Amino acid sequence: ATVIGQACSVICSICFIYNHQKRFYFQFKIRQLSVSCDILKELLSLGIPITIQSCALNISFLFVSSLINELGVTVSAVFGAGQKLRNIPGILSQAIGLGAMSMVGQNAGAGKVRRVTETALWGILINAVVYAVYSAIILFYPQQMFRLFTSDEEVLSYAWLYIIAMVSEMPGKVIMPSGGAVINGIGFTRFSMILGFMDAFLGRIVLTLLFGKYMGLGVFGYFLGYTLATYVT
């Protein structure tokens, strides 16, 4: 279903661009398919650091998941459902961040520094509204939100612990997409890669071990350490 959906998206995109070639400054001609070494080099220099960053974050997630799985099936289920709830505003803020990144790149290239700042600030404002509304919903209806993904009463008994940990990271989540938009929008992806490594290893792995294992906060410590890693970035 995912592959079919993506295929339809690609076909619709190609048809739309083909019908609006002048608008997008794009021509469907064979000579356009020739490789430009300069452009290829620039794309790789921008893309490879972001790829490495994404890999580092996924590795840290697998490591943290393995730690939480050791706590039992119930805690693992809480973490899984909690991650889905965490991703709901995350998808919205990520979309704002990607839109802001395009605008930052365009305005930085045009030398309009003031608009770069305005774009970042508006991104922060929009994300602040998104996370404020979402925080209110999950704080007032924690178990109801968890029931979207599970009906296990034992899992639901941990809902409040995960909600508190998740809400604690939201001020950082408000700012982070705009920060990333500015850094990546101006092409400073190597610094973004460094931040990704800090987030993954210094943040998620170290803080999860610190709060969950060494400070003896138990299940809540594992959840809290994982979410507070946002502030490292």
Q: Can you offer a commentary on this structure?
A:
This protein is an all-alpha fold and 233 residues long. It is 82% helix and 0% strand. It has eleven helices and no strands. Helix 4 (73-109) runs parallel beside helix 9 (170-185). The mean pLDDT is 89.
Helical coverage, percent range: over 70%
Amount of beta strand? under 5%
Low-confidence stretches: none
What is the residue-mean pLDDT, rounded to a whole number? 89
Structural class: mainly alpha
Features:
single chain, 233 residues, globular, 82% helix, mainly alpha
Question: Layout of helices and strands, plus pairs?
Answer:
Blueprint lengths: L1 H18 L1 H4 L12 H33 L3 H37 L3 H28 L1 H5 L6 H4 L2 H10 L1 H16 L3 H26 L3 H11 L5
Helix pairs in contact: 3-10, 4-5, 4-8, 4-9, 5-9, 8-11, 10-11
Give a brief outline of the structure.
With 233 residues, the protein is an all-alpha fold.
